Amino acid sequence: MNYFVSRTLAIYLLVVLLAGYGGAQGAQASQEEETRAATSAEDATSQAAAAAEDFLATLDDAQRAEATFDFDDELKSNWTNVPTSDEERNGVPFGDMTEEQQQATMAILEAAMSEEGYEKAVGIMEGDEALAGEGGGGQFGIDHFVAGIFGTPSETDPWMLQLAGHHLVLNLTVAGEDNVLTPSFVGVQPSEFELDGETVRPMGDENDKAFELINALDEDQQEEATLDYELSDVVLGPGEDGRTLEPEGILASDLDAGQQALLLSLVGEWVGLVNDETAATRMSEIEDSLAETYFAWSGPTTNGETTYYRITGPTLHIEFSHQAQPAPGGILHVHSIYRDPTNEYGEQVAG
Question: Is the pTM of this model over 0.85?
Answer without folding.
Answer: yes
